[in-house]
Specification:
With 251 residues, the chain is α/β, with parallel strands linked by helices. The protein has 2 domains: 200 residues, NAD(P)-binding Rossmann-like Domain (Rossmann fold, 3-Layer(aba) Sandwich), CATH 3.40.50; 34 residues, no CATH class. The protein is built from 8 helices and 7 strands; from the N terminus they run E-H-E-H-E-H-E-H-E-H-E-H-H-H-E. The longest helix has 29 residues. The N and C termini lie far apart (35 Å).
Length: 251
């Protein structure tokens, strides 16, 4: 195993806003160079600009193999070989099963599962070459089942199995793979959920927080902090784990 890079290069997908943006900012604070990747490069630019010269914005559809390969090649050329990957990109297409369109199923699994697969496949070779790497995948408490989210719950459960398999396959190369599963987090995605079910946002937050043992809603920084732990060298003996960042226990 070679020495850990002084300033590792991280790719954070879905990093234009929300959890992804908070994670990119946190990793930059930790001393990493960060590629802020999102579907549209223009959308990712504000996050990259907030970080400064140690970050670049990259546009790519994570469910498209050619775009993923091109994005990783660009990151390697402009920032250096990536040895940290945070698979955060995600979408929702919520509906009850009997109303769910096949296209909505395919879109959600394409971004969450295929996207994580394609990004990891493209980046792991750089980790293997370095003899060190960190993969952090974003799951959700919805992996345990959630009404109206058959597609999303399936994708997020799949991410957990994917993570555990990566830990087994890649551990010998000094690479860890772990999973962060957020509970209720204040974000654009949860605001969209409240709008979809017709509940005023303030009421939605109040009701959800009341059911959480710590009696507050989660913030994007809570998730970024958990990702930061998994990326740190001090977590080098932690791999294949799923941590629920949900303000209380989950099974």
């Amino acid at each position: 195993m070679t020495d850990t890079p002084r300033r590792p290069v991280a790719i954070v997908t879905g990093a234009a806003r929300g959890i992804g943006a908070a994670t990119a900012l946190r990793l930059a604070q930790d001393g990493l160079r960060v590629a802020v990747l999102d579907l549209e490069e223009a959308a990712a630019k504000s996050t990259a600009d907030a970080i400064g010269e140690s970050a670049i914005a990259v546009g790519a559809d994570v469910s498209d193999a050619a775009e993923v390969e091109a994005a990783v090649a660009r990151v390697t050329e402009e920032l250096g070989a990536p040895t940290v990957l945070v698979n955060n990109a995600g979408i929702t297409r919520d509906n009850l099963l009997f109303k769910m369109a096949e296209s909505d199923w395919d879109a959600v699994l394409g971004v969450h599962l295929k996207g994580a697969f394609l990004m990891t496949r493209a980046v792991q070779k750089h980790m293997v070459d370095a003899g060190w790497g960190r993969i952090v995948n974003l799951s959700s408490t919805s992996a345990l089942g959630n009404r109206g989210q058959a597609n999303y719950a399936t994708a997020k459960a799949g991410v957990q199995g994917f993570t555990k398999t990566l830990a087994i396959e890649l551990g010998r190369f000094g690479i860890t793979a772990n999973c962060v599963a957020p509970g209720f987090i204040v974000s654009d995605m949860t605001k969209a959920t409240a709008a979809r079910i017709g509940v005023p946002w303030d009421q939605y937050v109040h009701d959800r927080a009341a059911a959480i043992p710590v009696r507050r809603a989660g913030q994007v920084e809570d998730i970024a902090n958990a990702v930061s732990f998994f990326v740190d060298d001090r977590a080098g003996f932690v791999s294949g784990q799923v941590i629920y960042v949900a303000g209380g226990p989950r099974n």
